C-alpha cells in the first residue's frame, strides 16, 4: 500500500491509487494564519505539554450534535487521526486472540488493527448499494466464541465508495446493543458528501453506549495536522488517556489550538464547500470516462462523497496482473485484492478521484482501460 | 502521575513535580518563524501526507555522529517523541509475556511499556553515582527464561538524576551483544548537560546492532512539536514503518519540516546554551536550598544536566504521607515510590528544577522541609 502511494509523487504517472485530498485544495493560507495566530495569542503555552484543548473538544461535541449524536465534550477524546482511534480502541476493547467482525473488503488499516490484536475475524459481505450485510452481522454475533468487536465504515466506504443505509445503521446499533458487542464506527469522510442527504451515523442510534465513533481532520482540513477524535462513553475517556500516555503521551497542543481556531473562525464550511464541489466534478468526470472506456465490460459504484470508486471487471481480468502494464502506461490504481481479507476480488480495483485534476482523468482512464483489456 | 502534573497549572502552587521544560525559555519566536517559513516555502506540500522528511533524518544522523555513533539517515526513524519510540520498539522486539530487564526505580513510561507487553520484569538496582548495576544486569541476563529486552536511561536519569558511567556503558553494550538481548537506550536529555564532559551513549559501543537509541525533541526544542527518533539497524526501519502505519500512520510532515528548518538555521545551539545555563542556576539554587533546609537529614543526587534531583530521607519519613501536607503549603513534588516498581522508596522524592523560577525555589524548599518534618 505504502509503496503504491509513493507512486503519487512521480509526476509522470497519473495516480488514481492514493487516498490523499487534493494538495491544491488544502486550506494552506488559512492554516498558516491560524498557526501563527495561536502562537501570537498563547505564546509558549501553545508549545508546552498540555491537556486536551477544551475548545477543540467543545467544537467536536457541537459537530457531533449536528450529526444527531447526543454528545458533550466529556465524551470526546482527541487522537492523532482515525488510525490512532482504531488502534487505541482495539487495544482497549479487544483482548488478544478474541474474535472481531469486519467486512470482507475493507480499509487496510482495519485489517491491521485486528491482525495486531491477533484476532480471529468473521467477515461480512458488503452490498454495493446499501453497505455491510446486517443479516450476516447478526449471524456472526450469534456464533461462539462470541465476537468482542465490530468495525464498520458508514460513509463513502474505503475502498468501496458505498454508504450504509439509514435502516441498516439503526439495525447495526441495535445488534451491538443486543449482543453487547462494541462497534467501532470509522467515519473519516462524512463531511465530504457532495450529493444526497446526510444520514445520521450509527452512533446516533446508540442507546446502549456500545458504539464508538471515530472521526478525523485529515481529510476535512489537512493530513499533516495529525488530529482526529473518538466519541466514547465518558467513563472510558480516562482509560483512553492512560493507554495513550503509554503510547505517545498526548496530541500536539499547538495543532489542537490551531485547528480549534480554524473551526471557531468558521473556516471549515467554505473550505468544505470548495472541496466537495471539486470532488463532485472529479467523480463525474471519472464516471463518465469509465462509461466511455469500460462501459461494455465493467460496473462501478457511484459514491455520493468521499474519495473512492470501486470498479468490478469480468472474472477473467486480474487487476494485479494488469498493474505493471498500467504503470508502464503511466496510470496507477490499487488492485481490489489488497482490500479483500479473504484474498478474493482479483477482478476489482479502487480508483481515487480527489487527488487528480479533472483534465487528466479521461486520458488516464483510457490508458487504464487499454491496460485492463490486455495492453 | 498525570494528576500530579496537572498541579503545575495551579498558579498558587510551586510545582517541583512535573517534567516540563520552562515555558519562558521555549524558543517560541523561532519556532513561530520556522512554521511560517516552511508553509511559505513548501505550501500545501507541508500539509499533505508525506514520507519521513529526509533533511530531518539527515540532521539527526549528523547529531548522532557528533555523539560518536556511526549512523546514516537510513538508520533513523522519526517518532512522535521518546514514549512512542519505547512503545514501538517494545512491540517489535518483545513478544507478549517475555521477560524484560529494567531498573527498579525508573520512569513510569518505561514501566508502562513493559506492563503493556505483559512482560515479567527483572529489576536492577541503580547506584546513585554511576547508574544501573551492570553485575546485576549480567546476572539477570544469565537466568532462564532469557530476557528479551533491556531498558536503560543513560543521562540524567528520570527520576534519579544520575548518569551511567562511561565504563558501565561499554559493559552494557557488550552484555547486550554477548547475550543477544536488544537494549533500548532512552536518552531524551543528553543535550541538556550543563556540567562535566559528554559521555558517548551506549549506542556508540554497539558493534552487534543490539542497541536501539531513542531520542526526543520535546525537551530540546518544545513538547508540542511531538517529535523524536529511533536509531536502529537499517533492516528494521521498514518493520517500524509498517507497525507505525497501523498505530497512527506517520509523524506530521509540517512539524518535521519546521524542526528541520530550526535545526538547519543553527537555532538549537544558542537555545540550548540559554536553556542549560538557566537549568544550571536552578539546580544550584535547589541544591543550596536543600542543604539549608534538609541538610541535616537528607541526601540527594547532583545531576550534571537534565531536569531532576532525587532526594533520600530518613526511613521513617513517608513521602506519600507528607504529600498532602506539602500541597496545603503550596509546594508539590513526586513521591519516589511512584517510580519504584517494587513499591519501595517511600522515603524518597523527585524534584524538578527546570520549570520553576529560581526566585521561588528557596521558600518552596523551606515549606517542603517543614512538611517532610511533620508539618
Describe this structure in words.
Two copies of one chain form a homodimer. With 375 residues, chain A is an alpha/beta fold. The first copy, chain A, folds into two domains: 2-26 and 270-372, Aspartate Aminotransferase, domain 1 (Alpha-Beta Complex); 28-264, Type I PLP-dependent aspartate aminotransferase-like (Major domain) (Aspartate Aminotransferase, domain 2). Helices cover 41% and strands 14% of the residues of chain A. Chain A is built from twelve helices and 15 strands. Chain A has helices spanning 2-6, 28-42, 54-66, 82-93, 108-116, 134-142, 166-179, 234-248, 253-264, 268-294, 319-328, 361-372; strands at residues 14-15, 76-79, 99-103, 120-124, 126-127, 131-132, 149-152, 183-186, 211-216, 228-231, 299-300, 308-312, 331-332, 334-335, 348-352. In chain A, strand 11 (299-300) and strand 12 form a beta hairpin. The radius of gyration of chain A is 21 Å and the shape is globular. At the A-B interface, helix 1, helix 2, helix 4, helix 5 and helix 8 of A face helix 1, helix 2, helix 4, helix 5 and helix 8 of B.
